[in-house]
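Example 5.3 — FecR family protein
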Amino acid sequence: MSRNSIENSLIRYLTGQASENDVESLSEWIKDDENQKMFHDYVKIHFEISTVLQNEEIAPLKDRLMSKISENKKKNSKKITTKRILSYAALVIVFITGGYFSATQLLLPLINNTEQNIQEKFVILETEEGDLIKLQPTKEKVITNAQGNSIGNQKGEKLIYLNDAHVADPSYVTIRIPYGKKFNIVLADGTSIYLNSGSTLRYPTFFKKDIPRSVTLTGEAFFEVAEDKTHPFIVESDAIKIKVLGTKFNVNNYAENQNIHTVLVEGSVSLLNPKNSDEILLKPNQKADWNRKDNTINVEDVDSYRYTAWMDGKLIFRNAKFNKISRALERKYNVKIEIENKELEKEIFDASFDIESIREVLESFKRSYSFEYKIDKNHITIY
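Solution (predicted structure tokens):
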């Protein structure tokens, strides 16, 4: 493949006009050992991309992409290499020979969509001062407070707070998990919180000894609370409060659900009814449903794994309407589903999914109920 052909294919790809042949050729070209030195000569970061990506250094971006190439070469998977390398390169890297491409012709489509892509791709940590910190799943980062003191460490998809940060007062932070991602936080007291996609958690950087431990959740999370008999741990989720001393449980508080589900796996929890201040105790393998409308709480025995399987990447639906199923699919696969078939919305299904693609999931539902669908990038229309 000639240098001019490579350049032309790169330009077509970065401007969204690449053919399947372009993608295949570029994928093969990048994998070839003889092109490794040439690859380094081609790769630079354009100043406008550097600006919107908060001035990240060139070397780490190069190294990260080269690492991905090496990993995929070992796996000998052309299909995976095409998706991972080229989609990554299109977001943050400009390939050039002998100078810069024209920013207005080449980079404008990327710049216009960069902020949205960042928000969708990365876990975002918002500080008490309103600063936004990007947590990339393949990187490590030291987390500091406003005074520059180290308070925690990010290691990939896990953020661990220090219990000896030597800070007088905690600051409150909010973490937001985008669709298609999950994230684990270990608080300063040792409590581990596993957050599902589309979830938000507000919490202090550490807990003072003279006040209860308290966090606020929207979305879904699995808690493994470190035991402290003198300091109860409280999860506030909408108007309900869940109080524990040391235990394992799951809370589901997505906005589309009428009920907030609390499922106990191990230990014990109590729920404070906002209607009458009564406390309701749960035993392992019990689920409490708090109804947002009438403030009632219903308790029933369940198989707790059905409600925690999401941590293993599984989706389990029992007697579920398709409109609610579609919301779970949106979060897991990072897609937007538009249902034009109103009868389908009301249909009830039992289903379980694990490693299936979104297309395979939709085909599975089609075998039970006749409908058609169209996939356009991350937008799905069902009719």
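Remark. The CA atoms of residues 142 and 153 lie 5 Å apart.
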